[in-house]
Amino acid sequence: MAFASSIVTYGRAKGIVTATAMATEMGAIANMLEQQDDSETPLKKKLNSAGKILTFVGLIICAAIFSIGLLYGRPLLPQFLVAISLDISIIPEGLPATASIVMVLGVKRMSKKNALIKKLPAVETLGNATVICTDKTGTLTLNKMTVTELAFAENFSTNKTTKIKDLTSDKISKELILAALLRNDASYNAKNNELIGDPTEGALLSLSKKAGLSVNQLRKMYPRIKEQAFDSERKLMTTVHLINKEKNRLH
To answer: What is the C-alpha radius of gyration for the chain, rounded to an integer number of angstroms?
Structure first.
């Protein structure tokens, strides 16, 4: 079973669509995200916890003041009002506003460093992060394989490779690049001209394009009539193409 948004890197197959849209596994994940309740931030949890503690302490003090007043024979109603006033004054009403102001100041400081925050609780949650994992792909690398050197028969005797910039248009180089093009399942996207397929085969296809070979034209000129897919035991892929009306095997 192949799931939606999966990327096929190599191989050949025919598939039957069994579900679309929200009926797929990706749709089920999207549905779970929509139904997920907003979780409380660490600061909100701490404020709630502090509020409960202050309320509990206030009730104890309220009961103590009221009991002391009864022992001294004070009137019940005034004594009750004093106890309630003390209980209410224990809880700081400006605490939520103070917390919001602090987070706003954090957003302002981050905006000066070109970091935009959409929601205030995100600032407080980010402040509690201890480990940040980042991906360097796209910054230090391009996530793209490129052929930089080739090895021909003469290279094995000299123990040196031939760089792409030093590549000549001799027969050996053309045959090697042609073999890399024909025994290749990668292709270019017609819309944005991006490579589709295995990264290694994509690098070989880009090499053929740099060498001035027409991918589509040569594949039509030398059609593939048989293939033996790559496997870990053989460590190679074998294809048979029709060249000049004769079957020639290219590895």
So the answer is: 36
Q: Any residues with CB less than 8 A from the CB of 202 and at least 6 apart, and which?
A: 144, 145, 186, 195, 196
Query: 37, 38, 87, 135: which one is catalytic?
Result: 135
201: CB partners within 8 A, 6+ apart = 10, 184, 185, 186
Q: Which residues in 202-235 are b (16+ Cβ under 10 Å) and which e?
A: bbbbbbbeebebebeeeeeebeeeeeeebeeeee
Q: What is the 3-state secondary structure (H, E, C) of 122-161?
A: HHHHHHCCCCCCCCCECCCECCCCCCCEECCHHHHHHCCC
For the stretch 177-199, pLDDT in tens is 888 888 888 887 777 777 777 78
- Dist. CA 227–CA 245, nearest whole Å: 17
d(CA 239, CA 246): 14
Q: CA 12 to CA 226: how far, in whole Å?
A: 13
Residue 36, pLDDT score: 60
CA 118 to chain centre: 20
Q: What pTM, to 2 d.p., does this model score?
A: 0.42
CB distance 148 to 164 below 8 Å:
yes
Please say if 135 is a catalytic residue: yes
Q: Taking a C-beta distance cutoff of 8 angstroms, is the pair 178, 224 a contact?
A: no
